[in-house]
Amino acid sequence: MGEQRERKYRILVVDDEPRMVRFIRLNLEQDGFETLAAFNGKEALDKVREQLPDLVLLDVMLPDMDGFEVLRLIREISDVPVIMLTARSDEEDIVRGLRLGADDYITKPFSPRVLTSRIQAVLRRYQAVMPDEVIEVDDRLKIDLGRREVWVDGKLVKLRPTEFRLLYHLVKNAGWVLTYEQILHKVWGLEYENEHHYVRLYVNYLRQKLEEDPSNPKYILTERGVGYRFVDYRRLRQQKEQASQESASDKKDATTSSST
Known about the structure:
The protein has about 260 residues and is α/β, with parallel strands linked by helices. Helices cover about 50% and strands about 20% of the residues. The strands form 3 sheets. Strands 2-1-3-4-5 form a 5-stranded parallel beta sheet, with helices on both faces. It has a 4-stranded antiparallel beta sheet with strand order 6-7-8-9, with no helix packed on it. Strands 10-12-11 form a 3-stranded antiparallel beta sheet.
C-alpha cells in the first residue's frame, strides 16, 4: 500500500449512482489513490482521453449506454486497465466483459478492502517488466518479449495485456505443466486462486489467435483436470536439428560408398 501512496495512481470511477461514487472515492482516497468521477458513458470516454487515468472502475448499468459498449469504445482508444462493477453475478456477463477486454470483474456489494486489493493486483500486472528476448517457437510463431509483440506467419497479432502475460508465463515454462492455481497466481495474482474460468477463457482467446486449428492445438496443450503446458519447442528444435544432421551424414556416407 505504501507503493500506492508514493505513486498516487489515478482511478476513474464510472457509475450513475452518486452515493456509490462517493463511497468508492472516499475509500480509495483513504488508501492513497487519486480519483476522478464520471456518471455516464460519454463522460467516461472523455475523461479517459483527457485525464489519462491509470485504471477505470466501470459500472455495467449506465444511463446513456451500457458498460459493455463503453468498454468496447475504451478499447478502441486505450489499453488502460478496466475493472467492471456489476450488481449481477451472471457468468455470461463476466465472460462478455472479459472478452471485450476487461481486466477484472467485481460484483456488488463489495468491501472496500476487496476493491483496493483487486485494484492493486491489476496495477501490479500492468507494471510487470518483460525481459528483452525474442523467442522463435517455430517457423510460424515468433514472440518478442521486450516489445510485447507476437508474430504469426509473418503477421503481427494483437494481444491484450492479460493475454500476453499468460502467453509469457506459458512460454517461459515451456515443457512444464502449469496448474490453474499457478497460472492464476502468476498472471492475475494471489487474490484470484479460485477463478479457474479466467484461465480457460484466456487460453481459448490465445488459441484462437495463435493456433492453426484451435480445436486441435499444437502450442498450448491441455493437461486435463490440472492446467496447461506450452509445447517444449526447444526440445523439438534439437530433435529437428539432430534429424537434419543425421540425414546429412547418411547422404554423405551414401555418396562415399557409391564413389568407391
